[in-house]
Design a protein that fits this description.
alpha/beta, 6 helices, 7 strands, 41% helix
Length: 238
């Protein structure tokens, strides 16, 4: 029986619910040992147990990716398991869609940028070295179509995702010589609690499993190629 990700370690940030949980569940089903992170320990434990009950290997370790010290502590807690690290999925993110930029509270701006952009930098800084030492792997950054298009009343979120896209393209060029593939995935509206999706038909929206399917395709791609950017849209406009 072919188990594509057997003996490989995968990290998924924001892995306790929504897109992150769907990705972690998919990677575990493919044979990976998955470590999920989030800020709420209770939600992490419930999500990890859910994956284990389905037959997967999963641990939850609390980490706020917007804190450099917490990311460093998280890396230290993994210990020797880092020698099997092959996949890092940077999914943790926060939204903000209620006000135009000139009315946006600076604290809201900081929270969005620190989690959605700075946090990815911290994770790559911490985990690109073990990926390189292990002979390569995949870094997958979950962005948004808001990083490609204007988003009125969500400028801070859009800015964080435009920045994430640029970070991803550049990191891909820096790391490809080390056999580390960097992919940025830009979904449209996904049926999660990140934003209210007012007026959307939920049944036509993208679902978390749709994003997880794309991540599974990326990490099982033949080693001589990689998808640097994926734009994911629903088949029917919701």
């Amino acid at each position: 029986m072919n188990i594509p990700l057997q003996d490989k370690l995968a990290i998924v940030t924001g892995g306790s619910r929504g897109i992150g949980l769907a990705i972690a569940t998919k990677l575990a089903a493919l044979g990976a040992e998955v470590v999920i992170t989030a800020r709420k320990q209770g939600e992490l434990e419930e999500a990890a147990e859910q994956i284990r009950k389905a037959g997967g290997k999963c641990d939850g370790i609390r980490c706020d990716v917007s804190s450099l010290s917490e990311v460093q502590q998280f890396a230290d807690k993994l210990g020797d398991r880092r020698k099997r690290l092959k996949i890092v999925v940077n999914n943790a993110g926060v939204g903000g869609f209620s006000a135009p930029l000139h009315e946006t509270d600076p604290d809201t701006w900081e929270k969005i940028i620190n989690t959605n952009l700075r946090g990815v930098f911290y994770m790559i800084r911490a985990f690109a070295p073990p990926l390189i030492a292990n002979g390569g792997g995949d870094i997958i950054n979950i962005s948004s179509l808001a990083g490609k298009n204007a988003l009125p009343n969500g400028a801070a979120y859009s800015a964080s995702k435009w920045g994430l896209n640029g970070l991803s393209y550049s990191a891909a060029e820096e790391l490809r010589g080390h056999n580390v593939r960097v992919t940025v995935v830009c979904p449209g509206s996904v049926n999660t609690d990140l934003s209210p999706h007012t007026g959307k038909n939920f049944s036509k929206m993208l679902q978390p499993d749709d994003v997880a399917h794309v991540v599974a395709m990326v990490v099982t791609q033949a080693p001589q190629s990689f998808a640097s950017e994926i734009l994911l849209r629903p088949a029917q406009k919701p």
